[in-house]
Amino acid sequence: MKLLKINRLEEINARYNSNRLEKTAFFQSVEKLSYQRTYSLSREAVTELYGDAGAQRNGKKHPRSSSRAVRESVPTPPAPFDHRIVSAKRVGISSYYNVSENEILGGGRFGQVHKCEEKATGLKLAAKIIKAKGPKQKDEVKNEINVMNQLNHVNLIQLYDAFESKNDIVLVMEYVEGGELFDRIIDENCNLTEMDTILFIKHICEGIQYMHQMYILHLDLKPENILCVNRAANQIKIIDFGLARRYKPREKLRVNFGTPEFLAPEVVNYEFVSFPTDMWSVGVIAYMLLSGLSPFLGDDDNETLNNILSCSWDFEDEEFRGVSDQAKDFISKLLIKEKCWRISATAALKHPWLSDHKLHCRLQVPKFKYPCAF
After folding, report:
1. Residue 372 has pLDDT above 70, yes or no
2. N or C: which terminus of the chain has fewer CB atoms within 10 Å of its end residue's CB?
């Protein structure tokens, strides 16, 4: 497996807007951020989880810090509006919203996302402007609207309004200010720890669990489609349901789309997809967050797809030195070629890596100064 390393952030940003495959390849360019950096638990947080012994082991108080144990218990905030059932209005969006052409929040194959404000309430939102000229393109966008109408969960971005014109459809959605999870990773000032990854993956699995309970497959999970609620916390919202499909067990579903680096083997082989297809992508994301490396990326699309089909990956790189055995076990239960053997989102949330509070304490507290009390 060939791993590309690029040292300069300027080069990363220059390539970031080129095309979809190149953008996903940037994880190969990210130098592994220091695993050694840990967060000290406050005396009160340790006491809350493990009793007075954990906080008093050194016989002195540790000043309160941004404890991961405290943040772990904080749920992702809901949208600032109730869930809505939306249908596209055949009027101009400017009748109801002020769209900021200069404040571009993101972009991709569909078009651009702009910050906007509802005139009647002053509510800050995001306007996703999708180019859709023909009936087929418009039907695809309306499928996205239909999917979002069925999804009411704090870890899934919420739809507020929609507008249809001759050449495009605009989706007005919940606005979050933290940027893409991808941006958090390439930020050289942001030192992600294993505990950060646990919290991110836990919220991702909670959102995917809800989608699967609603019999909906996302089918395009990747760090660019995961937004951080803010730049400090580990709370996320999954976005971009343009490729999502309703799963009907009696109707065998095949798909031939997605981002090569994140495709499951059954997608590459044009075989039937189901809930485990999304869980493969969760495994790839976890691998990337922990190491800054892409497990299957090759020099071109063909090599990437062949790496996926051979399911050739390992933990031998230096970046995995110090990563917990539980993390490696978690990934090993997802990056399995036969989809029937992958764990579900529900089982993932019960896995020790995401659920063992004693493990989380050990990952957060410096081993010699503030050990956990058992």
Report:
1. no
2. C
Rg of the chain over CA atoms, in angstroms? 21
Domain extent listing, the chain: 9-32+178-364, 93-174
Binding residues: 128
Token output for 31: 């130098």
pTM assigned to the model? 0.79
| 93, containing H or E segment | none
- Binding-site positions for ATP read 128
What rounded mean pLDDT belongs to the chain? 81
d(CA 35, CA 32): 8
3-state secondary structure at position 279: helix
> Which has more confidence, 276 or 49?
276
Fold classification of 9-32+178-364 (topology level):
Transferase(Phosphotransferase); domain 1 (1.10.510)
Catalytic residue among 161, 168, 183, 220: 220
Report how far residue 343's alpha carbon sits from residue 339's, in angstroms, rounded to the nearest whole number.
9
Give the helix/strand (H/E) hosting 131.
strand 124-131
Out of 52-56, 160-164, 319-323, 349-353, least confident range: 52-56
**DSSP labels, 80-120:** SS-------BSS-GGGTEEEEEEEEEEE-SSEEEEEEEETT
For residue 41, pLDDT over 90 is answered with: no
- CATH number belonging to domain 93-174: 3.30.200.20
